[in-house]
Fold this protein.
Amino acid sequence: MADDRVHPTVDDPVVTALSESVGGPLGTRAGRHPWWTPVRVLLALTAICFALGMVQKDNCYQDSWQNGQARYSHMCYSDLPYLYTGRGFAELNWPYTDDAQVRARYDVMEYPVGISYFAWGAAWVTHWANGSPDLGPRYGRSTESLFGDPDVVPEVRLILTVNALALAAVTRLAVWLLSGVNRRRPWDAAAFALSPALALTGLVNWDLLAVGLVAGALWAWARGRPVLTGVLIGLGAATKLYPLFLLGALLVICLRDRRPMRFALAASGAVIAWVLANLPAYLTGRDEWYVFWHFNSDRGADLGSIWLVISQATDGVSVDTINLWSWLVFGTWCIGVLVLGLTAPQTPRFAQLGFLVVAGFLLVNKVYSPQYVLWLLPLAVLARPRWRDQLVWQAGEVFYFACVWWYLGEYLAPAGGGDAGFYWVAILVRMAAELYLVVLVARDVMRPAHDPVRQTEWADRPLALSRS
């Protein structure tokens, strides 16, 4: 049987040009390798990319994150080791305990429950792998001193290893799922597997957990499983809030296709999954569960945000003003995506609308951490499967990744004092690169002839008609 999969050397101009150095594009008589299927190649490439990301953190790993400046100069910062001791995981405390002694010593985890559960589980694995050390002596130490305690330092390194192995498995699963969204275009997932943004930011925090669930939702929707799609979105929203916005993309698609029941099933699955995921935390520590919501509502303009530029360039912007305007602008953006989707010549693809909604949220959000690029990555590679455009967008992300650590390390601080204007430039460059991809995806929605996926479908129509 002929292989009808779209090969990147004949589909993508950048890959076509690069293929000339190894014999040119795939020919019509090319055979299949008996073992190296596209999915296996993609999984191998993902493993290599993730391993490079682990190597990139090696400087900090070698000194157990004890050198406060090296984490910026070598750009190897990660939240994982610091939160291990800073949130009580070194003592195996349940993140939502209301025990007065624990709460007096440790701040509550400021993340959604999915991340908190995962971090707690990783801490148990770390203790087991380290020989289950006696925790008694730690209760008498100050929380600040635990991070440098000789008995705890090995665990600071080990916790990163445990998390890295688990997140690597999640990433490989995400690539497998993305490669199956469009059975004829498995190679579209290669831009995810080989992403420099993935290598650089994959271990900064636990965002890859939500990324894996989003990849699963894209796969489930492509397989016609709305309930599973909703469940994965709900679990994703319990891990990072942004997957919830994907329901908006599904609403537009279901309105276009006049299939409201599919949306109702997906939304119901999402709500039920989110409630069940949050229930253990809510029942064991209601006040601690609320911390995530209060923390995000009360925080001001933070790293990577356009609001930080505005705040530093002016006399400052109040938290209430930022909250109001960020949600107003995002709401307006969502209305624009709704109109775009409803007026498009064809029903837009899930990845296209999902990318546009999440990109809008990030562009106006009051914090845009370096690893938030991962939120867009599975959506972007399917929304606009062209290497040139992916590289342009990720070049902006890599530039920002370097600048944010230089900024925190005060390497960009002006000699005469004041705010680091070059960091503002980095924020604007990152936003411009993202908007570049947004414009292209929006154009593809309104003019499907520019969409690489639609081009493939249309090219096959004469063949399909001849067979019918």
